[in-house]
Amino acid sequence: MGRTLRNRKRIGKRVAHSASSDELIDLFKWLKMKVRKLRPTMFLDTGRGLMTKRPIYPGDVIIAIPKPFLITMDTVLKSEVGFLLKRSHLKLNLQQAMTIFLITEKEKQEESVWWRYIKVLPETFDTLAFWKSSDLCLLSKNVYKKTFAALNDLQTFYDEIILFLSSSKEVMITFNEFRWAWYCINSRSIYYDCDSSPYITDTNKNIALAPFLDLLNHSTTAEVEAAFNKNNNCFEIKTYNSFRKYDQVFISYGAHSNTHLLMEYGFILPDNPHDVYELNYDEIVKVAQNLNLQYIDKKKRIIEENEINRKSWKLIFKDDTISITNQKAVKNMSQIILQQELLEIRSVFVKFPSKDKSRLTPHQNLALDLLKIEENILQQSIKLLQ
Ligand SMILES: C[S@@+](CC[C@H](N)C(=O)[O-])C[C@H]1O[C@@H](n2cnc3c(N)ncnc32)[C@H](O)[C@@H]1O
């Protein structure tokens, strides 16, 4: 990151921080006391996570992070990034603004009140945005397409930041710095209600970073309630699970499919009950047209005019009863599509540099595991149709 220290100091002086450095250091000490029952630990299966030093029962609050520790829209607006936002005619979304915030605070190192937090953030991620293009080619066509679209969006977010910063001429961030900060936020932020601001767009504005709490790993069996408690001014997580002494404590990041977990968090789970195999809308239409399905062009027009293909086209098939003719057509179409997808998936297996898993890199192993999971979903679905 190229930026002049002199300029940074100049901006810094004009900005009021939400808490002074001493206050935050004291708070960090206090936080350590509060969370002493959870200890950061390296686990073989999940990597770094939190271990409990006492049994936890359903209904227990496992963690409570006081508001001054949260990096919220308020924190960003009160920082030098907020100063830049307030004098610019351009708006950013909160994740973009937080990205610049994290990078500028990281550059300050010990001078930053957030350094104790920033220095324990991962340096890199296994999310698909960090994969080499030769490894991305080992993904199924659908996942590859989704990744390609996500990478384009990422580039757009970066370009917008560069445009925003170009007027200030005081801060420059590289794409790699941006990508690091973006995925810190992507994989670690909590849902936190924020009021609208004239300087930040409303999209995706309800996020915050919660130091220490973000050391909790995800499990599909975890049941939690997370919310800000106005009575004690803390962001709290209550669990509905039990944990024995020395167990790893898990939370749930949501009912995410493996593709979503890989794209946003950089891992997959072999027995993920929320896994899905997403079919591509254009492929479905192609098969329906080839089968000369009744009224297909009319249906296609209705779907596209109402943008159902972009939003919730999955939902329309959910509970509605359909005619016998359509039922047969859907079954026939599904069989063709699933078989096509299965062939497609199988054609990717041959691209792996080795059949021996131990000779594959971690990303290649992730790609192989995901491919096998996708193959299994397709095989099971084909069986169900027979
Ligand atoms: C909110 S952080 C959790 C703490 C993180 N493990 C750390 O060391 O900072 C989310 C990241 O943790 C990892 N993670 C979370 N749950 C996991 C799981 N069940 N298996 C493997 N990795 C997991 C992923 O790298 C994910 O991006």
From TrEMBL:
Q: Which superkingdom heads the taxonomic lineage of this protein's source?
A: Eukaryota
For this protein, the record's Gene3D superfamilies field holds: set domain protein methyltransferase, domain 1 (3.90.1410.10)
Q: Note the Pfam families from the entry.
A: SET
Residue span, SET domain: 31-254
Give this protein's Gene Ontology molecular function annotations. protein-lysine N-methyltransferase activity
Q: Which residues belong to the signal peptide in this entry? A: none
By what name is this protein known? SET domain-containing protein
> What organism is recorded for this protein?
Mytilus coruscus (Sea mussel)
